[in-house]
Design brief:
Strand content: 15-25%
CATH topology of the largest domain: paralog of FGE (formylglycine-generating enzyme)
CATH class of the largest domain: Alpha Beta
CATH superfamily of the largest domain: paralog of FGE (formylglycine-generating enzyme)
Shape: globular
Largest sheet: 4 strands, antiparallel
Distance between the termini: 57 Å
Helix content: under 10%
Structural class: mainly beta
Number of helices: 4
Radius of gyration: 22 Å
């Protein structure tokens, strides 16, 4: 039985006597495996794509005088930012409750389960900020959303997704899974993170496009002058969305415990203030030929079969090379987390 089925009045009795009823708390996420830092010279944010599971908390139906749920008496109390909770299996912490990693002993599947406060991002919700946005016509004979660059066509903006049937926007904060989606390049759209290379390539193909080859991507970012950054050879901090003082996982989960980097699939990371920008929001982050956000904002997959994403993202654009020269090669094509995005290329008609 999930914790969400417990009433608020039952919660007070459910804690051991020294713990009072819940007030408000932070929400948490899911995940799989990860590295200990946001982005390293080996090219890693960490891992994502699944939910970590472990020992069951034993929250089951019963008649033990604790709100009708047996087995919770052994749950370890925990606290997140001064808010009280219980250490439970993530599978038993749903609905109006959410787990936060890094505050409980034992396996990573046991997390501090606390109540979602009003206004706090719920990682299970699927907002569609791109609904109703329309892709502009292409330039120079290119497909919609594209512009000509050195004999090919390149998306002007980082890619977002719409459904093949009906054209409804896909939430850019969730991996598309097996949904039938296609890529679009739209000014003001929240670009699609949480996507692996295989999915990105398929989305481009569904729009008559393809992922850029490494040399094509580099040429598009560096422009005809071969500059280090989209706007020139000298770094200008803040012109692109290229740095953040606090890693979003540290801010969101409220801890620096390494376990948080196993939860980089959390949909709330790219919804924090001062995190992911809508496409084209930084007017100075533009190449000579008119492509936006090729440095920072999101990593961008290329068609390298071994797995490469380029350009850095909104936390880091230096650790794996400066600006356009940034390249992460540490992951295979099935990898994804909140930082991985894409843009498409195409041959000129």
């Amino acid at each position: 039985m999930h914790l969400a089925l417990l009433g608020r009045r039952a919660l007070g009795a459910w804690f051991f006597p020294a713990i009072v009823a819940f007030t408000t708390a932070a929400c948490g996420g899911g995940g799989d495996t990860a590295g200990p830092s946001p982005s390293t010279s080996s090219g890693g944010e960490g891992g994502a794509g699944g939910a970590g599971g472990a020992t069951s908390s034993g929250v089951t139906g019963g008649n033990d005088g604790h709100g009708g749920y047996a087995g919770t008496g052994d749950a370890v109390p925990c606290m997140v930012d001064g808010r009280k909770g219980l250490c439970l299996d993530v599978a038993d912490c749903t609905g109006m409750f959410a787990p936060t990693p890094g505050f409980c002993p034992g396996s990573s599947g046991i997390q501090c389960c606390t109540e979602l406060p009003p206004g706090k991002c719920d990682p299970t919700e699927m907002p569609n900020p791109n609904e109703g946005l329309v892709e502009a016509p292409g330039e120079g004979g290119c497909l919609p959303g594209m512009l000509p660059v050195a004999g090919i066509c390149v998306d002007r903006y980082e890619g977002s997704l719409v459904m093949v049937n009906g054209g409804a926007a896909h939430s850019p904060f969730f991996n598309p899974g097996v949904e039938d989606v296609r890529a679009v390049s739209i000014l003001g759209a929240v670009p699609q993170g949480y996507i692996d290379q295989v999915q990105a390539a398929s989305a481009c193909l569904a729009s008559g496009k393809r992922l850029c080859a490494d040399d094509e991507w580099l040429r598009a970012c560096q422009g005809p002058k071969g500059t280090t950054y989209p706007y020139g050879d000298v770094l200008e901090p803040g012109v692109c969305n290229d740095a953040r003082a606090v890693h979003p996982a540290v801010e969101y989960f409220g801890t620096t415990d390494p376990s948080i980097f196993s939860h980089l699939d959390n949909a709330c990371l790219n919804q924090l203030p001062d995190s992911l920008d809508p496409s084209g929001a930084r007017f100075g982050c533009e190449t000579d030929e008119g492509a936006f956000d090729m440095m920072g904002n999101l990593h961008e997959w290329t068609d390298d079969p071994a797995g490469t994403f380029r350009g850095g993202y909104y936390v880091d654009t230096v650790k794996n090379g400066p600006g356009c020269l940034y390249a992460t090669t540490a992951h295979d094509t099935s990898y994804w987390d909140y930082s991985t995005g894409f843009r498409c290329c195409a041959d000129l008609p």
